[in-house]
Amino acid sequence: MIPPASSAFDLYLTPNTLPTFTPIAESVKVGKNCKLGVGEEKPNNYKPDVYAFGLCTIGEDSVIPDGVSIGKNTAISGKTELSDYPNGLLDSGETLIKAGDKV
Which residue from 6, 44, 85, 92 puts its CA 20 to 30 A from 36's CA? Predict the structure, then answer.
């Protein structure tokens, strides 16, 4: 696991994780062997004008489990589990909110 660069921004990326075009907020933990920002471009199903440009957006205090792939134009918020990702994938254009109702 790569430790956070500073106490002001706690980001934990584990080995073999590929964050491509991924804005990641503070206090996020991304599991091993994850692929972020993969696949084809599709409009986001929640806020297509915000979650666009091929980005995979991960909100503050979110947790991404080991071994998942996350598509483009996606938004994730909260502590997610492997069962939240059908076949280990959050498809492009999808939104996964498990922390309140905001991304």
Answer: 6
Q: How far apart are the first and last CA of the chain?
A: 26
* CB neighbours of residue 88 within 10 Å: 15
Could you identify the residue written with the tokens 């696949």?
Answer: 39
Contact 55, 73 (CB under 8 A): yes
Name the residue type at position 15: P
Residue 52 CA to residue 43 CA, distance in Å, equals 7
Tokens of 100: 């309140």
* Mean pLDDT computed over 62-69: 94
Residue owning tokens 């790569």: 2
Question: What is the band of 2 on the pLDDT scale with cuts at 50, 70, 90?
Answer: very low
What is residue 24's DSSP assignment?
Answer: B
According to the model, what pLDDT value does residue 99 have?
Answer: 74
The average pLDDT across 84-89 equals 97
Report the distance separating Cα 36 and Cα 95, nearest Å.
14
Can you list the alpha helix ranges (DSSP code H) found in 1-103?
none
